[in-house]
Design goal:
The chain folds into 2 domains: 46-382, Glycosyltransferase (Alpha/alpha barrel); 390-469, Immunoglobulin-like. Strand 12 (450-458) and strand 13 form a beta hairpin. The strands form 4 sheets. The chain has a 5-stranded antiparallel sheet with strand order 6-13-12-9-10, with no helix packed on it. Strands 3-4-5 form a 3-stranded antiparallel sheet. Strands 7-8-11 form a 3-stranded antiparallel sheet, with no helix packed on it. 41% of the residues lie in helices and 13% in strands. It has helices spanning 2-23, 46-60, 81-93, 97-109, 134-151, 159-173, 201-211, 214-234, 273-284, 287-303, 327-336, 343-355, 362-375, and strands at residues 61-63, 69-71, 78-80, 120-122, 127-129, 391-394, 400-402, 409-413, 419-424, 429-434, 439-443, 450-458, 461-469. With 470 residues, the protein is an alpha+beta fold. The chain has 13 helices and 13 strands. It comes from Flavobacterium jejuense. Residues 1-24 form the signal peptide. Residues 401-469 form the Secretion system C-terminal sorting domain. Belongs to the glycosyl hydrolase 8 (cellulase D) family.
């Protein structure tokens, strides 16, 4: 009898594990989303993104001991926290868990007393550049949120808990107190010195939803746009050509003397700004982000005469300051073209980026791969990081969930013979059912009020929706 009971328990456990693997909030690569906001290139292909990823991983990922991985910098014997952030974004969206976990453990091994990674490390150990660089923390925190969506947080790494801790550290040490100005590091900067290319308003909105702190993080997002627009206005900038560094007033900073050109040109820092800002538009539909990204796209399309004429640096008045045509600049402007309202220009920009071949350039090739993930719909907002969006769709499945919010029951409109799975924000399966009609009523009256996620699968298509139960 004991043996029979044990077998029954093992069988039940196996069924539960199997069911959870089906219903888990996981998005294998490629997601190939079509964003609700902006244009998508008609010639986009996840094959291009995969090819870039494979080159990036071969050329820049190195294994350390104890399951750690690092990203090789311009000097291959060094690693910078920025590279770890980029690497964690790429590996989590690629669903490459082993490498992702190794990068995160490397980050944790090299943190300072504020809980952020020292910005430069010699090989697999030993800080040679002390204290944090905020853009790294921002990317890492977003990657951990996606990891919580991809793999859940009940395994060896609690991605959700780690994300919450890191977001709290960013709030405490890398956002200036009382001003909402993003500091460029945990130990310096603020209103007197900031870096517009670090601003990631889409991430901030995700942090707010993820940690139930939206008022604070929405204020940081708003301040980012205030600083960017002030910088453009004060310096009579053409298009969206922000300076590499500035004060929160938008004026140039006398604390930027140690940076290239005193931080006063649109070069290798500022070049990332169009990518970071357009994400706020394609993820959240933010109109301020759209306006800025369109300015960037129109600068290339109108002022430069097309993507083929992009060079690696400009004065803010639009005059040329660089000489090379590379992925750092081409790809960010290509992402901006998603908000540019010109399909032909976006398609040409996508092709231009695809054809650039810089496999041994850490910065250019890493950013090329990230840009391609966004352009192909593989750099997305996971449903565990939004309270303002009602939809997260994959592979083109059209469904509706209403009313939303709901007082306890709601309707899922989906194709006949779909499967419906409802989970809470911690990944716990609440219920599942198969549809026999075009609309199905889901009874949640016995569940606690809060946010839930609904996964609908029909053949090889799937969609996710969030539902709020009052």
């Amino acid at each position: 009898m004991k043996l029979l009971l044990q077998l029954k328990r093992i069988s039940a456990l196996a069924i539960a594990i199997s069911f959870n693997s089906i219903c888990a909030q996981t998005q294998p690569f490629p997601a190939n989303l079509t964003f609700s906001n902006g244009l998508m290139a008609t010639n986009k292909s996840d094959v291009d993104a995969t090819a870039s990823y494979d080159i990036w991983k071969t050329n820049f990922i190195e294994s350390c001991s104890n399951g750690r991985y690092r990203v090789k910098f311009d000097n291959p014997s060094e690693t910078v926290s920025e590279g770890i952030g980029y690497g964690m974004l790429l590996t989590v969206y690629k669903a490459d868990k082993v490498t992702f976990d190794g990068l995160w453990n490397y980050y944790k091994d090299n943190r300072n007393s504020n809980g952020v990674m020292n910005w430069k490390i010699s090989g697999c150990s030993g800080a040679i550049g002390q204290n944090g660089a905020t853009d790294a923390e921002l990317d890492v925190a977003m990657a951990l949120i996606v990891a919580d969506y991809q793999w859940g947080s009940t395994g060896t790494i609690n991605y959700r808990g780690d994300a919450e801790i890191l977001i709290a550290a960013i709030k405490a040490h890398e956002v200036e107190a009382n001003t909402y100005v993003l500091k460029p590091g945990d130990m310096f900067g603020g209103s007197s010195l900031t870096n517009p290319s670090y601003f990631a308003p889409a991430y901030y909105r995700a942090y707010g939803a993820f940690t139930n702190d939206s008022a604070f993080w929405n204020a940081v997002a708003a301040k980012s746009y205030t600083v960017i627009n002030a910088n453009l206005t004060q310096n009579n900038a053409v298009g969206g050509l922000v300076s590499d560094w500035c004060q929160s007033s938008g004026a140039y900073s006398n604390e930027a003397g140690g940076y290239a050109n005193g931080g006063q040109k649109y070069t290798y820092d500022a070049a990332r700004t169009p990518w970071r800002i357009v994400v706020d538009y394609v993820w959240f539909g933010d109109n301020t982000g759209k306006v800025y990204a369109k300015k960037c796209s129109d600068f290339v399309r109108v002022n430069l005469g097309g993507t083929a004429n992009i060079k690696d640096g400009y004065n803010q008045d639009g005059t040329l300051a660089g000489q090379w045509h590379n992925a750092t600049f081409v790809g960010a402007f290509a992402c901006a073209a998603m908000a540019g309202e010109d399909q032909t220009h976006l398609d040409a920009s996508y092709t231009d980026l695809k054809n650039l071949n810089e496999p041994n350039s850490y910065f250019n090739h890493t950013l090329k791969t990230i840009y391609q993930f966004l352009l192909t719909g593989n750099f997305y907002l996971p449903p565990n990081a939004t309270l303002s969006n009602d939809t997260f769709a994959a592979n083109g499945l059209e469904v509706s969930v209403y009313p939303n919010p709901s007082n306890g029951s709601f309707i899922v409109a989906a194709p006949i013979a779909s499967s419906i799975c409802v989970v809470d924000v911690h990944g716990k399966v609440i219920l599942e059912k198969n549809t026999s009609d075009l609309s199905s009523t889901i009874d949640m009256n016995a569940q606690a009020p809060g946010l839930y996620l609904v996964k609908i699968v029909n053949e090889d298509k799937q969609a996710f929706r969030k539902i709020v139960i009052n």
